[in-house]
Design goal:
The protein is α/β, with parallel strands linked by helices. The chain has 3 domains: about 130 residues, Alpha-helical ferredoxin (Fumarate Reductase Iron-sulfur Protein, Chain B, domain 2); about 180 residues, FAD/NAD(P)-binding domain (3-Layer(bba) Sandwich), CATH 3.50.50.60; about 160 residues, FAD/NAD(P)-binding domain, CATH 3.50.50.60. α9 links the parallel β1 and β2. It binds flavin-adenine dinucleotide (FAD) and iron/sulfur cluster. The site of iron/sulfur cluster has 15 residues, from α7 and α8. Iron/sulfur cluster binds next to α7 and α8. GO terms for molecular function: 4 iron, 4 sulfur cluster binding; metal ion binding; oxidoreductase activity. It comes from Agrilutibacter terrestris. InterPro entries: DPD_II, FAD/NAD-bd_sf, FAD/NAD-binding_dom, GltD-like, Helical_ferredxn. Its cofactor is [4Fe-4S] cluster. This is FAD-dependent oxidoreductase.
């Protein structure tokens, strides 16, 4: 092993893996935008870590990954050990390495941002696990003792999968139920393949199979199997149901033909691209089937500036749209989407129209345009984000053949939760016990939820995490909550 260069970050500039050439992307290439480091590139990029002694990266990572430590193992070429260390904190490292908004999380806090460019933490995390898996690495569960306990996980999204991973490592027999035909939740049915190739999910499925996790796919709890049955047959139940009710904004004209909700558009298209349903037939259990219009040569306008909006604009580019615009009511600095994704979209030819408030959709049968008004930023709202205020008399019309509405998601808890005493917050999120760190350790002014274990619902056998608890958020926070909920379940099963 070569000694770590002290000034590796000076000798070696920050370099992301090569990207698919622009012309191919614009010509409909759905492959993952960023390629993979080869061993030599990964070692060089991992060797840029300064080992600054104050790993803000690890603090800013919601999972508190051991980033400097696995970067050093990667620099030394010890990918199997690095993969094991990655998995100590992160049940889904190769996935987070691909889809985390690193510019806001680990890399955004890297000390080298001070003029040298952050270490490419996400790309190295992806490399470590991909390389180790290719060498045959698998989690070592040889010391795990079966507890004789059984847990049902509802939802095979990142929250449910992370919970299942940790339960399996704790010797708990785990069965994951999901209404869809493949695991991943939004990782499979939402996030497009240019951000996350679906073979990655299949590899993760094999890993979890190998760990003894059972899957019952195509099974909707509440329709195909009842919650009563699960509560009878299992010692605990984890709810990782996600957050799926999309906000439509109530715009006049939103029922016109070729006005599409974002998620069904992405899901349907993803199914076609991945070959899961090449003929685009409706899927059993998928209530949101829409007929996808051909976008070739069309003027596509996407309303909304979050991650979902970015996935829609970049999908529209690959589907051959003549022009793609993104309308967002605030300015670029206040966009919720990752800056990296915005830059990629811009490079692919997407036009951003900031400070525009959509007022309505025009047309008689088919949509023909979007009525918008200019905005200025006003006072901050309750969450500290400045409101967009419409400028009187500034209305204009954007011509459009297809409009995609990407205004975000709200929790849509199933009715059967209430029948089992699982209480909700006012906005529909599942109420769970807080972590001590979040209520200051003492939980003064305690509410009912504060007397519960972290991630335990108001039904003692039922735990929950991910978007169903937080509201629409991130893969890495869902993974964190699944991991922590599993720890709470294991504690509860021991008591
Ligand atoms: P989900 O991933 O939604 O999984 C929930 C699962 O529960 C689903 O598979 C569903 O079928 C299943 N389920 C629900 N009810 C039942 C039932 N009754 N019976 C059986 N199964 C059930 N985050 C990022 O970090 N980076 C990104 O780039 C990013 N891009 C995104 C792009 C889009 C288009 C969207 C919509 C979201 C994106 N996100 C991104 C957010 C991220 O995908 C979610 O925060 C994350 O997937 C939430 O995980 P979850 O496990 O809580 O829920
Ligand atoms: Fe960064 Fe996400 Fe990996 Fe954490 S999990 S180190 S935030 S890429």
């Amino acid at each position: 092993t070569t000694a770590k260069p002290v000034f590796g970050f000076r000798e070696q500039p920050r370099q992301m893996p090569a990207r698919i050439p622009l012309a191919l992307r614009q010509d409909g290439d759905w492959g993952e935008l960023y390629g993979r480091f080869d061993h030599a590139e990964a070692k060089k990029q991992a060797g840029r870590c300064l080992d600054c002694g104050n790993p803000y990266c690890a603090w800013k990572c919601p999972l508190h990954n051991y980033i400097p430590q696995w970067l050093e193992l990667a620099r030394q070429g010890r990918v199997q050990e690095a993969a094991s260390l990655c998995h100590e904190t992160n049940p889904l490292p190769e996935i987070c390495g691909r889809v985390c908004p690193q510019d806001r999380l680990c890399e955004g806090s890297c000390t080298l941002n001070d003029g040298f460019g952050a270490v490419t933490i996400g790309a190295v995390e992806k490399y470590i696990v991909d390389a180790a898996l290719a060498e045959g690495w698998r989690p070592d569960l040889s010391n795990v003792m079966a507890t004789g306990k059984r847990v049902a996980v509802i939802g095979a999204g990142p929250a449910g999968l992370s919970c299942a991973d940790r339960l399996a490592r704790a010797g708990v027999a785990t069965t994951v139920f999901d209404r869809y035909e493949a695991i991943g939740g939004l990782l499979h049915f939402g996030i497009p393949s240019f951000k996350l190739d679906k073979t990655v999910m299949r590899a993760r499925h094999e890993i979890l199979d190998g760990m003894g996790v059972q899957f019952r796919l195509g099974v909707e709890v509440g329709r195909d199997v009842s919650m009563d049955t699960l509560l009878d047959e299992f010692d605990a139940v984890f709810l990782g149901l996600g957050s799926y009710r999309y906000t439509d904004g109530g715009l006049p004209g939103q029922d016109l033909t070729n006005v599409l909700p974002a998620l069904p558009f992405l899901v349907q298209n993803g199914r076609l691209v991945s070959g899961l349903h090449p003929e685009g037939a409706p899927i059993a259990g998928w209530e949101d089937h829409i007929a996808l219009p051909d976008l070739k040569g069309k003027r596509v306008v996407v309303l909304g500036g979050g991650d979902t909006g970015m996935d829609c604009v970049r999908s529209a580019v690959r589907l051959g749209a003549a022009s793609v615009s993104c309308v967002y009511r605030r300015d670029e600095a206040n966009m919720p989407g990752s800056a990296r994704e915005v830059a990629n979209a811009r490079e692919e030819g997407v036009q951003f129209l900031f400070n525009r408030q959509p007022l309505g959709l025009l047309g008689t049968e088919h949509v023909t345009g979007v009525r918008v008004a200019d905005t200025v930023l006003g006072e901050p709202d309750a969450r500290g984000r400045r409101n967009a205020v419409v400028v009187p008399g500034s209305e204009s019309v954007l011509a459009a053949d297809v409009v995609i509405i990407a205004f975000g998601f709200q929790p849509d808890p199933p009715q059967w939760l209430a029948a089992h005493g699982v209480e909700l917050e006012r906005d529909g999120r599942i109420r769970v016990g807080k972590e001590r760190s979040r209520c200051g350790g003492g939980c003064s002014g305690a509410t009912a939820a504060d007397t519960l274990l972290p991630f335990q619902s108001t039904h003692p056998k039922v735990f929950a995490g991910g978007d169903a608890v937080r509201g629409a958020d991130l893969v890495v926070t869902a993974a964190y909550e699944g991991r922590e909920a599993a720890a709470a379940i294991v504690r509860a099963l021991k008591s």
